[in-house]
Amino acid sequence: MPFSSKVFRNLKDSIVGVKEQDEDPLKATRLAVDAYSKDAKALCQTLQAFAKANDELDGVRGDVVKTAKAFLLPMDQQGGLQVASDPELTKVGNLFSSEVDSISHSKKDTRQLLDDAVSEASAMQRRLDDLTTAFNERDKAAELMSHYKIKMQALSEEH
């Protein structure tokens, strides 16, 4: 019986996959883990995209500050700052400067929290993947038990 060999069973498992147990007492748990795993994966991807966008925004913020500084604080011929003659322009410059400082401090305060959230989400995703792998290994073990029970019955009937 070459088709009942271990090599063929392993080949079948790698191509088709391991069949879930018919009467699995953990079926509801497995479904909940699968749904939670999809949500955790989406959360992890969203946090990573947010961190990337935050980094890109930081680069753009630097360009905006440079451009605004050149407009609000023009340089004279010797490279020194010209005193703005318009008091409204000075108010705008001061307000802009304070807002940029506020954004910069806020980013520094939240960056570590964002990195921690990405790390925790990745760790949770790995744990859920391990749990899914454990469910699959459990199914494979149950399938092997069933296979060998049938073989044992056949042997006991022969003798």
UniProtKB/TrEMBL annotation:
It comes from the Eukaryota. It comes from Perkinsus olseni. This is BAR domain-containing protein.
